Amino acid sequence: MNGGSDEIISQASDGGDIVIPAPPCRPGGAGLRVPVRTERTLRAAELALRLAACGFALLAAVLLAVNKETHDFLGLFVKEVRYTGMQSLVILVITNGVVASYSFLQGGRCLVSTVRGRALVSKPLACAVFFCDQVISYAALSALAGALVAAMIGKHGQAQFGWMKTADLYKRFAMQATGAIICAIVAVVAMVPVSALSAFNLFRLCGAGKARNIY
């Protein structure tokens, strides 16, 4: 047994289970001591990443929402194509709108925290942010995967199912949709370290005095 209360380690004589009590909370609730400079760097990085995710997700949604093209088939009929004609693009627009809105709100929270110089100290808030970040990230990734599959089918077709290539008929629409998908990819990539930071902010908080068993 060490002299410090935060380094007490006891071992059962028969069971062999090591019980390490969670370290007591310091004022502010954080269980892991982080240097002030590191704390500021983490807050600034989280703010930049959330704003980047917001910007690129919003750009992807706008590019797809305003994207349309009309094609004249030998003067017989005119066909206008929009993102609403492909369900995967509709889902991508809605998802990126949600990602942009959520990232904007969380970016505002990070900005206030950075200006005031206060770290995330509430465990319920840290849990809520971590959960929401995970849901938003996986939803954005799923919508992006569906849009990528649809884009590949539109580009190369699928002869086994009789699906023809449509990207050659609507080249401008295809190019703008490609740009929107690239922006969505960047937004998803930005959400990955954001999720890691929210996990770090959660797991560095103390476990409210509960011991953890290591087997």
TrEMBL record:
Compartments, record wording: Cell membrane
Transmembrane segments: 47-66, 86-105, 125-153, 173-203
Topology versus the membrane: Multi-pass membrane protein
Superkingdom of the source species: Eukaryota
A GO cellular component entry from the record: plasma membrane
InterPro entries reported for this sequence: CASP/CASPL, CASP_dom
Source species of the chain: Urochloa decumbens
Protein name in UniProt: CASP-like protein
Lineage, highest ranks first: Eukaryota, Viridiplantae, Streptophyta, Embryophyta, Tracheophyta
Subunit structure: Homodimer and heterodimers.
Keyword flag Nucleotide-binding: no
